[in-house]
């Protein structure tokens, strides 16, 4: 089953995937209990709050969240119903649309953030020394670049 | 929003969470395309294949997968319908039940594993040097222990 990964690398992969899934499950439960937000809600609020004009095109948002277009439509319409975001047509391209952070969305994010940051510190970041922080940053930035490049390559028409 | 994490640690957390979510999404798509298994299906097959007698109590399986009892019931009944696992009452405790790997489940795992291991190597493990493997193993084993301890503490009655 595992013949092509060394025991050290298999142990590494398993520790990473099992602990990360456990962390993401707890993070989701913790956010919901504290602020009635899912992690996807929170992530959308953060991305919009940092974007110029607090707005992003739907396609850009889908790509940042790694969501399919239909999953993003569902996500944004759920957040629209709760008043956290609005949806507007793009000024530059009338066929496209953008998600826009509302004032209520910004206030919700500001209320949720301190608790969420405490969760992140208590559960992971305060446990790491500076060398581990540097190692994780390096490994996961490389991983992100590789996965984005693979996605871009697979969505480029073959004749280009 | 981020006053209590240093810029280095915030960059680390973001690289970790965004790249990991991107990786887990791709891993799920890749497994489904190659073998019609979800990652949860695959994980259940691996855990059962490694357990004594290829069987695990439902409670133990829920804990290993970080699934609620209802989510595990749904997961196992979906795998039962596809013939990958069977469900039996525990020999030791007639009220409890166990999931048991079927021969079809083992064959499915054996067919899926080489492709999945290649995915894991290509997308993450072959990119890491030995020092990075050691760092990730150390960090994520500590994280797993901490999260399990927190869960055990919160499920212990207060008067014990």
Describe this structure in words.
Two copies of one chain form a homodimer. Chain A is mainly α. The first copy, chain A, has a single domain, classed as Orthogonal Bundle (Arc Repressor Mutant, subunit A), CATH 1.10.10. Chain A has six helices and three strands; from the N terminus they run H-H-E-H-H-E-E-H-H. Chain A has helices at residues 7-35, 39-50, 58-65, 69-81, 103-123, 130-154; strands at residues 55-57, 85-89, 97-101. The first copy, chain A, has a three-stranded antiparallel beta sheet with strand order 1-3-2. In chain A, strand 2 (85-89) and strand 3 (97-101) form a beta hairpin. In chain A, helix 2 (39-50) packs across helix 5 and helix 3 packs across helix 4 (69-81). The radius of gyration of chain A is 19 Å and the shape is globular. The mean pLDDT of chain A is 91. At the A-B interface, helix 1, helix 5 and helix 6 of A face helix 1, helix 5 and helix 6 of B.
> What portion of residues of chain A is helical?
55-70%
Estimate the strand proportion of chain A: 5-15%
The Rg value of chain A, from CA coordinates, equals 19 Å
Q: Which CATH class of chain A applies here?
A: Mainly Alpha
SSE topology string of chain A: HHEHHEEHH
How many distinct domains of chain A?
Answer: 1
Instruction: Give the low-confidence spans of chain A.
Output: none
Shape of chain A: globular
| Assigned CATH architecture of chain A | Orthogonal Bundle
| Oligomer description | homodimer
- The largest sheet of chain A has its strands arranged as 1-3-2
* Main structural class of chain A: mainly alpha
**Count of runs of 4 or more consecutive helical residues of chain A:** 6
Mean model confidence by pLDDT of chain A: 91
Number of strands of chain A: 3
Greatest contact pair?
A-B, 58 and 57 residues
What does the largest sheet of chain A look like? 3 strands, antiparallel
- The separation of the N and C termini of chain A measures 39 Å
GO molecular function (chains A, B): DNA-binding transcription factor activity
Protein name (chains A, B): Transcriptional regulator, MarR family
Pfam families (chains A, B): MarR_2
Organism (chains A, B): Micromonospora rhizosphaerae
């Amino acid at each position: 089953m595992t013949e092509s990964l060394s025991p050290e690398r298999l142990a590494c992969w398993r520790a990473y995937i099992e602990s990360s899934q456990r962390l993401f499950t707890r993070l989701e439960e913790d956010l919901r209990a504290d602020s009635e937000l899912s992690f996807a809600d929170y992530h959308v609020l953060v991305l919009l709050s940092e974007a110029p004009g607090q707005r992003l095109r739907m396609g850009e948002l889908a790509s940042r969240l790694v969501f399919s277009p239909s999953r993003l439509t569902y996500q944004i319409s759920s957040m629209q119903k709760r008043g956290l975001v609005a949806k507007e047509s793009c000024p530059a391209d009338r066929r496209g649309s953008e998600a826009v952070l509302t004032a209520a969305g910004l206030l919700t994010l500001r209320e949720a953030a301190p608790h969420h940051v405490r969760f992140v510190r208590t559960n992971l970041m305060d446990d790491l020394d500076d060398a581990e922080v540097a190692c994780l940053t390096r490994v996961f930035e490389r991983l992100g670049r590789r996965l984005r490049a693979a996605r871009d390559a697979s969505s480029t028409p073959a004749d280009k």
